[in-house]
């Protein structure tokens, strides 16, 4: 070839290799020097098969394939394929080959150097493997955290044994939940608390651990029994827990809570809520005990006011604690929220059922409402019949 042509071929990032009918290489483009580090003359004859591959079996296999291709009448359906070559210094060089036949029935291979691309693919593969392992480790940790969270939740059977009947519908959005419930019995009094912590998933779960600790501190250790006093104490304890290391910035995390205290000696029920109301079904009617318009933990610079409401219990009263996950679930034909009005109607419709049946009914209605919509928040509904 002319000097100009050789110069052009030398600068290409491609190899041109011509194999004759006997399987001998009779031409290698000058670019072999730059790409593989071999002089083109070194690769002629058997040099191509012997120098660019370390494995004898592979050399024979590739050459045998080339001879079969030479015997074919047409290579029109031949698709590009990748091959790993060795350079003169022993480095890996990946080449993407396109094979065709010349008019004199010789095999012409045009190979594009794709080493950089293969390296990038390998690096991406390694990163994906690393990411998958990282995700597995993280998921394993969350699964373990879920077991810990389940361990701090009260035994539902203890709640059922304390009252005429009860159920707890507890359905985290993720593996762990920001919703939490608390139960404690002291002599003739029983404390039932439903908590909706800031966020869901891991952040919410961490808040639920804090909620468990401060509820035990306030109700069990300090012995507070009035729901409003408990809320004041919880607000103070949570603020101290979240801001003990901060100097000026105040953490804007908190929780909504409904607290009910059942006094079996006096047959009274006392309630106070921080943004979480409570529903009472009595003689076929539903009564909403409204919550105080302050959360626990937020608005540290605001003077909060929590009030306790006390009523006398009647036979077959049913109390429902609930976080906002059920009512806020999107679904239905118009993809709207379930809303509190429908939730109240649902509870009234379930009054002929046993509490265990009510739990199953609430789950069924929610799934039917959701259809293919994702769960938007943690869900907690507690039903207690006295």
Structural summary, described in words:
By secondary structure, the protein is an alpha+beta fold. The protein has 2 domains: 3-115, PAS domain (Beta-Lactamase, 2-Layer Sandwich); 154-385, PPM-type phosphatase domain (Phosphatase 2c, domain 1). It is built from 10 helices and 17 strands. It has helices spanning 3-11, 31-36, 47-51, 56-71, 115-152, 156-162, 201-221, 227-243, 340-349, 355-370; strands at residues 14-19, 25-28, 81-86, 92-101, 107-113, 165-171, 179-186, 189-197, 255-263, 268-274, 278-282, 285-289, 309-312, 318-322, 330-331, 336-337, 379-385. The protein has a 5-stranded antiparallel sheet. A hairpin with a 5-residue loop joins strand 4 (92-101) and strand 5. Helix 7 packs across helix 8 (227-243). The N and C termini lie far apart (101 Å). 29% of the residues are buried. The mean pLDDT is 90.
Question: What would the keywords be for this entry?
Answer:
Beta-Lactamase, Phosphatase 2c, domain 1, 2 domains, five-stranded antiparallel beta sheet, 10 helices, 38% helix, 27% strand
Brief overview:
The protein is of the alpha+beta class and 386 residues long.
**What would CATH call the class of the largest domain?**
Alpha Beta
- What's the Cα radius of gyration? 37 Å
Helix content: 25-40%
Strand proportion:
25-35%
The secondary-structure class comes to alpha+beta
**Would you report the number of β strands?**
17
The count of helical stretches stands at 10
- Give the count of structural domains: 2
The whole-number mean of residue pLDDT values reads: 90
| Terminus-to-terminus distance | 101 Å
